[in-house]
Amino acid sequence: MKTLLLTGFEPFLKFTINPTMKIVEQLDGMVIGNYKIHSEVLTVDFQSSGEQLLAHIEALQPDAVLSLGLAGGRYKMTPERIAINVKDGEPDNNGHTPVDEVIQSQGEDGYLSTLPIRAMVDRLIAEGLPAEISNTAGTYLCNNVMYEALHYGATQRPAMKAGFLHIPASHELAIQHGRIPSWSHEDLKKGVALCIEVLSANET
Ligand code: PCA
Prior knowledge:
By secondary structure, this protein is α/β, with parallel strands linked by helices. It is built from 6 helices and 10 strands; from the N terminus they run βαββαββββααββαβα.
């Protein structure tokens, strides 16, 4: 049995609920395909979320890392293609607002996801869930965490797969927030579970 580190994020900015939190809590301990899932929730903090993720990776020594983030406003499930070595954007939950900073001074400009993102999108669509590959994870915390996992993998644990899946808002969040497209929680959770199934199936 392999180990998957599955991460979500706490709420941030104007998003009072982060659906990734409930998804990772509900999938924690489950077995999907060949993977036993170990879940963690990360803070939305430019200074510490990368360290938190790397501490979980070092403690768990997972075979793969799938990080989830809310992309409020997106209509589809979107596995990310690339993480870039940039921190920039709106304030994090501690009010820190980096401008054009690098994440890792010795790191590459970008790292491509090492998850089977095309197969994930194909499977989601085959199961009736709208999906497409995203070519930018932005420069906020989601990109930051994806970059840190891939940089660590590239430099210290080449066999470890890593990548990021952005998901739309849940209905629960859309009711509180107002004007954003939303999915049922069950569909969001099903989509995440399908991506893990694809990851496992791609290795057997
Ligand atoms: N989404 C944000 C950060 C936390 C989250 O769930 C992002 O897309 O960067």
